[in-house]
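Record format v2
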Amino acid sequence: MVNVCHQESAEAAWEAAAAVPDPEVPCVTVADLGILRWVRLEDGVAVAGVTPTYSGCPATLAIEFAVEQALREAGFEARVERVMSPPWTTDWITAEGREKLRDYGIAPPVESGGKATLFGAPTVACPRCGSTDTERLSEFGSTPCKAHYRCKACAEPFDYFKCL
Amino acid sequence: MALFEALLELADDHLVLGHRLSEWCGHAPMLEEDLALPNMALDLIGTSRTLYTYAGEVEGAGRDEDALAYLRDEMEYRNCLLVERPNGDFAQTMLRQLYFAAFMEPYWKAALESPDETVRGIAGKAVKEMAYHIRHAGEWVIRLGDGTEESARRMQEAVEELHRYTDELFHSSAAARGVDALPDRAAIRPEWDRVIGEIFAEARLEIPQVPFPQQGGREMQHGEALGHMLAEMQVTHRAHPGAVW
């Protein structure tokens, strides 16, 4: 058990959980993505609130296991709760998270969630050369959260983190 | 228990259609579609899981998502007949998808105003996913309907085959009616008619007259197709009761 005061151990628990990388996009952490909602100490147990990105995201369970494991390794008894409300949107991704996605070669979401029109497609800048002369190859990419694009300026194909 | 029954109707629709889409995995006509169809299947199955989990809590009999998905027989499933129809060709799959998504998107939008917090949470996620599904299926229905002679013929055949099943989307069984937490299915009809009408006009498809709409799934009377599908979906779980990852 940790022998520090409540406040400090709550912070330590947050830091341990927040550092867990996303299993499918390991350049960002669960805190960068905004899917770690909170960590509380309840009767000495660190309880983390985690929210799924997409309804069918296969990584949800892996993320919950990884957060629980990280809290245990930091010396806490741990439990994870799945938080459904309010629902996650791409607006929860932090500015730092967006920067990390771009550096990794994934175009971050460009518009606020919920604005997608029936047949409109957003203008996405290439994460490598910055050109907006890009085209959508497929709305469904390598994971449920990504679409597949190609840059017509530098010819690189790239993933786009879809707006939700 | 009307809420339990109504949640099962929703969950069964999502699981059955999700499983049907997953049958395309490895068989789609091009790589992009081979990714897109299982992607959408994941959305649908993921939504069904949260609905089953909530239904199990509402029922209070200790059944979890697995018990509700894998341990009920065909005669206990409450999905509408549309979602259990076999995949047929790509035109039929895309049309079935469009019919369903064009219903669910306004349905979830209405559910955002539900007095039930869990329903609002599920709706908030699903409504945006369904917008993608309408767009994807709508683009294909337009491309095929307004395409070559062959594609137009097959798309119109799909309409003749499937349109008779759409009426049931707007019905609940007697056991599932009058639930405050969920939107009224019948009220979704004008928006569904509008979206389908717009897409059909662009796809140059005709909406057929349906003198005798097909229904019965909500009352747990299914076509032959569902039993075969469930047998394949449930066999592993039933062969290894209680197995976990």
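Chain A is about 25% helix and 25% strand.
The two ends of chain A are 40 Å apart (CA to CA).
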